[in-house]
Amino acid sequence: MTAKSTSVNKSIKKAGKKKTSARLSPALKSLLERADCARHEFRYQEADELYTQAIDSGKLDPAHEFGARYGRLIMRVGTLEARKADTRQMIKLARALKDPIRQIRAQIEDIKAADESDADSAMRKAKTILKDARQLQNRELEAEATYVLGIPYFLKYEFQTAMELFRKSLAMSLELGDRFGEALSLTSLGASLSNLGNAGEAIKHFQRALEIFRDIGDRDYEAAILRSLGNTTNDFASQLDFHNQSLQINRQLSRSIFIGNDYNNLSISYSNLGLYRKARELGELSVQIARKHNEAGLAFCLESLSRPYLALRNYEEALKLLDEGLLITRKLKSLSVEASYLQALGRASFTRS
Predict the structure, then answer these.
(1) 224-353 CATH pick, 3.30.930.10, 1.10.287.1260, 3.30.360.10, 1.25.40.10
(2) Band of residue 275 on the pLDDT scale cut at 50, 70, 90
C-alpha cells in the first residue's frame, strides 16, 4: 500500500460502512478485500477486474455492490459509457438503501462522467447536489459538490465561473487536508486558466498537481497531468518530453485509450515541428486505437491526422479524414471540435485550390 492514502480511499470505506445488512460468503469477502488492496496500491487493471468479478457474481447486497461499483469507477479503466452505466446503477442502489450520503456520492460521480452534450443537465444536477450536501452539513461532500459544479460551467466554456468554483473547492480541500481533492482542483484550475489564455499560471497549477499525484502514487493522474503540461507549453522540446513521459506510463498501465491520446498529441507536436511523416505515422496509430476504444477521441484524432496529409499534399485523404471526423463530432454535439473541423475543411479546400 502507498505510504499516503487519498480521500478517495476514505470515501469508499465510508460508502461501505452504512447499512451493510447482508453477510458475504468467505469467497466474496476475500474477492472484495483483494480488490480494495489493489485499489489502495493503484493497481488499476487488477482492481477493476476483481470488482467486476464481484459485481458479476450477482451475489452482492446493495451496500456492497455500491462499494464495488464505486471502487471500479474511480479506477478509471472502463470507457465513458461504462462509467456512466456504473453511476446510474449506483444512484439506484443508493435510493434503495435510502442513504443520502451515498446518493450524493453517486451523483457526484455522475457529473464527473458528463460530456459537452450533457452540460445543461449536469448543471441542474450539480446545483441540487451542492444544496443537498450543505443541508447534510458534510464539509467533505460540500467540497466535492463545489468541485463538480465547476465541471458543467467548464463544459459550457464559462471558464471564469468554473475557475472561481475550482478555487473554492481547492480552499476547502486544503482546509480538510484532502490531498487528492487538492490535486484535482489544481488540475481543473490549470485547465480553466489555460482556456482563459493564462498558460504560465496554468503550468504552475499543473506542476503543483503533478507533485501531489506523484507523492500519493496515482500514476494514472500523473500521466493525465503530463498530457496537460504537454498541451499547454509552447516549448516543442518540452511538449515531446511531457507526451513521451505520459506515453511511457500509459504503456506500463496498459491504458489503450490514453496511449491513443498520447500518440495523437505527439502527432500534433511533430506536425508543428514540420516532421510530417513522423506525425502521420503516430496519427495513424492514434486513429487505429480510437476506432477500437474511443469514439469521442476519434473525433480529435482524425482532425490531427489530416494535418500531415495536408502538408504532404495528399488532399484527398485529408478531406476524407475531415469529413468522417465532422460527422462524428456532430453526432457527439461538440461545438468547439465542430468549429475546428469547419476551419480545417476551409483551410484544406483553400490549399487544394
Answers:
(1) 1.25.40.10
(2) very high
